[in-house]
Amino acid sequence: xxxxxxxxxxxxxxxxxxxxxxxxxxxxxxxxxxxxxxxxxxxxxxxxxxxxxxxxxxxxxxxxxxxxxxxxxxxxxxxxxxxxxxxxxxxxxxxxxxxxxxxxxxxxxxxxxxxxxxxxxxxxxxxxxxxxxxxxxxxxxxxxxxxxxxxxxxxxxxxxxxxxxxxxxxxxxxxxxxxxxxxxxxxxxxxxxxxxxxxxxxxxxxxxxxxxxxxxxxxxxxxxxxxxxxxxxxxxxxxxxxxxxxxxxxxxxxxxxxxxxxxxxxxxxxxxxxxxxxxxxxxxxxxxxxxxxxxxxxxxxxxxx
Amino acid sequence: xxxxxxxxxxxxxxxxxxxxxxxxxxxxxxxxxxxxxxxxxxxxxxxxxxxxxxxxxxxxxxxxxxxxxxxxxxxxxxxxxxxxxxxxxxxxxxxxxxxxxxxxxxxxxxxxxxxxxxxxxxxxxxxxxxxxxxxxxxxxxxxxxxxxxxxxxxxxxxxxxxxxxxxxxxxxxxxxxxxxxxxxxxxxxxxxxxxxxxxxxxxxxxxxxxxxxxxxxxxxxxxxxxxxxxxxxxxxxxxxxxxxxxxxxxxxxxxxxxxxxxxxxxxxxxxxxxxxxxxxxxxxxxxxxxxxxxxxxxxxxxxxxxxxxxxxxxxxxxxxxxxxxxxxxxxxxxxxxxxxxxxxxxxxxxxxxxxxxxxxxxxxxxxxxxxxxxxxxxxxxxxxxxxxxxxxxxxxxxxxxxxxxxxxxxxxxxxxxxxxxxxxxxxxxxxxxxxxxxxxxxxxxxxxxxxxxxxxxxxxxxxxxxxxxxxxxxxxxxxxxxxxxxxxxxxxxxxxxxxxxxxxxxxxxxxxxxxxxxxxx
Amino acid sequence: xxxxxxxxxxxxxxxxxxxxxxxxxxxxxxxxxxxxxxxxxxxxxxxxxxxxxxxxxxxxxxxxxxxxxxxxxxxxxxxxxxxxxxxxxxxxxxxxxxxxxxxxxxxxxxxxxxxxxxxxxxxxxxxxxxxxxxxxxxxxxxxxxxxxxxxxxxxxxxxxxxxxxxxxxxxxxxxxxxxxxxxxxxxxxxxxxxxxxxxxxxxxxxxxxxxxxxxxxxxxxxxxxxxxxxxxxxxxxxxxxxxxxxxxxxxxxxxxxxxxxxxxxxxxxxxxxxxxxxxxxxxxxxxxxxxxxxxxxxxxxxxxxxxxxxxxxxxxxxxxxxxxxxxxx
Lengths: 305, 521, 329
What we know:
The complex is a heterotrimer.
Chain A: H1 2-8, H2 13-49, H3 53-59, H4 71-76, H5 80-113, H6 120-132, H7 137-147, H8 154-158, H9 165-176, H10 180-188, H11 193-204, H12 206-222, H13 225-230, H14 239-259, H15 268-291, H16 298-304
Chain B: H1 2-23, E1 64-72, H2 79-94, E2 96-104, H3 105-117, E3 124-127, H4 134-139, H5 149-153, H6 155-160, H7 163-168, E4 170-171, E5 174-175, E6 178-179, E7 188-193, H8 194-199, H9 214-223, E8 229-231, H10 242-245, E9 258-259, E10 265-266, H11 272-286, H12 300-305, E11 309-315, H13 320-328, E12 332-336, E13 341-342, H14 344-347, E14 351-354, H15 361-373, H16 375-383, E15 391-394, E16 399-401, H17 437-447, E17 449-450, H18 464-476, H19 487-500, H20 503-520
Parallel strand pairs in B: 1-2, 1-3, 8-11, 13-17
Antiparallel strand pairs in B: 3-14, 4-5, 6-14, 7-11, 7-12, 9-10, 15-16
Helix pairs in contact in B: 18-19
Chain C: H1 5-15, H2 21-55, E1 66-67, H3 73-76, E2 78-79, H4 86-90, H5 94-125, H6 129-140, H7 147-158, H8 164-171, H9 186-212, H10 215-223, H11 228-253, H12 260-266, H13 274-277, H14 280-288, H15 294-322
Antiparallel strand pairs in C: 1-2
Helix pairs in contact in C: 1-2, 5-9, 5-11, 6-9, 7-12, 9-11, 10-11, 11-15
């Protein structure tokens, strides 16, 4: 074998080793640079969230807090019951919404990736069209509140990301990338589409599913716009929306304080930074679990059996 | 910070008021009956439960529940206690109950727009020049015509407010909202850090106009470190002077600030005051009063509190210096430099509208009467329940404070927004230093000269394309208001761009409507 | 690669012989069900969700052609033709905003695709698991910062008084630059900010595909004497092309829609920068913020959608001629 190979091999093994090493060093240097560029601002955010507003505007931002000051957190978290409740709502919505949405999206994507499905292009167009055109807020509001009666419900928070056009179409390309021999073999073995989907396609597609699943989780967790439209009861406020209202109410504080006697003087900029910390924290904790699915070689194993 | 910010917001009041004065619409709304809505599915909202049917009105039937939307700075746990307490009084006196629905200020406008657009049923809502905007709502026929209902159904409240003031909220001769009495006069002036005013020997008695302050500012630029600004400013146009000072007849919109001798509005560049104001800020910027570049609007408050500005130009009021000290922690000294005038923007800055769809219009009007005349009821809504949320500090002078163990952070009910519910002059004082402020404010209101355009609302529908384009152009020159864009060099460009965006057409339309408005008065 | 159709082919050929119309119909029906039954059922949930929450409200698009009044309702308001669209075209900056939107979006598409694929390729080659996780997690972080917060940073970096960049420049003896008055520099600044914020998210699409590629392909290529770059070119890239095409088509469909948060907050909406940073979305915001005219804002949205739609249908048609499997629909 080696004799046969060497005749075709333009580079020596040593060459591979040297270029490989140099290449790997270069590669890691680049990645470290990018990572640090991404990480540093985040540390600055954390530092700023425990700084006083005054030090931020007079001395600028830094990776160390100028003066340790947790006023922003105290301001955001003053109503601890509400904060706890809101975390719970976000958790429930994310925990129900992302798996459900992922299932719905994976099903339709897989269907569209099957070449014998006659209407796959029509379905694709139907889905893509929703990415471009939308009816606007007022018609949606009328539909949701008056006909579906979903105002002030958990359901209305779950619905928006159950079927997202872009993600569906990307998932389709992941499914199309599956080795077709395998799917065909499964069919010949008498596996129905459903069984093929659940026993072969899903396990083989974990990196793709994890990617879209992660995006769905983030979308649910970060969503403040849906509650802005449809949620009025504080006990249904998700955490992102709760913080959004607190931080954005600040700009009205001036009117309020001017007119009434009492001074409310919120730490505006640190509060915005603290809001980032409070909402990202749980995601960062969950991230490693998602990362477990970004693994190589799953397909290899099943191909060999 | 406060005053500063207030100022920022005051400025926004003015701008918005202006714009909304412009934006308002008018005539067609009055007479039309609402056509059945495409969207009006039967709406069993939280609101009117048993009383959906019109005949359920009289007191014999179960009491109407008035659904009331307004702004809040936070959610308060005890809101339902306050509501129950209010309803004890309301049931007796007006035969109806109220359902309090506070919405976050940051979401109020969006949420109300959706409710109004979708025809959702409710009874009353906060409306103003700056949140849940009044004129677009009137244009869309959202509010009930109160022109006759208020004087008849709420006579005592009606009498509290001087007749000229009611005109400010009229659109096409009809009144669509109930005005809350509060500070109506946007008095413009300057305030200095006391320490610097003393150091540079500022003598207010020799100051009657802004130019008189120039020697002081010059001295500050020379004498202070580079990061000290003589005049605070930001990229949203804070630090300018034209809106309030040279512009006492301002309906708010840049294009037609000035009324000429015929009572017509003109292009702003045709008015001497406007040109003078812009020339002045240009000179100030060259002299270095404004620093190297404007602060970002988001940093303004923090810079102010950090004492990085020697002075600020904005609304000033009696007692303002003390408030400023509370915010920044250091002393301020200020003077009003504008004429005392009444303007539409501040007059309609806080009002309550009755929804056209209400099934209990009479109860709503009775409620408005009561909340403006029943002092304990009004203060219940403002400050909560006596003993639980507040206690008397000085009953003779109407001063209240928090009960022992309660503070602004942990109070179950502390909306701190008496100005949005009714006549603010009926509110208890939350601070002994403010005793007498209501009388003083009322005096200013009463003595103020009404703007000749008070109550004129421009219907922009016929020229909305042009208004949109001009608005976009004006925004591009915002830094001209604080001299960072050279006025003399850029004025010709500005003129020609506003003109080509349709300036003349808009002006003609405004003056046409102005004539109609005058002749109908 | 064998086509999946081979599986069903025997069925269809068996049909050719059947004379009876009824049997033929039933065979055809069975065939149809076999091919389409499960996919239809699988598509149903998504199709229904989209029908209710995306298609039903779509009638509201007509607001763009109406003088919308709440009391008259969406259907009852008066038709006014294209009046609501006029402010977009009549303005003296119509050309500027169109050009900036297009040029900036094209820049984002090209630089974004190259960077995201590049980073994904490098990540794919990282050996240590821990290191890979560290890179991935940190690159994801900017995604969590709102544009408002990014805007603060940009200012902290570029401000003339206290800005980090100007401090650095001054140590080299370069005079401080008033960045917020230099429109020519801003396309580059915005591209950098966009890449920085999007690389963690964007590279994931490609990385997910790479992780699925059978390592035996690389072994085989190595055995054939392929160097690293050749492996990338001949083994990895063909798998990436479909995703790249899809993502590009998405971007093309949104090419008339600028990221408002980016252009508004990061530039701090400074008029001095408008020559290069004023885009359709910032203009619409500026023109309409005080007007509360739902018809005109709907018109702007419809305009952006229709242009995007026409473009994407065209590009899709081209892609389909070249390779039907890679087309969007």
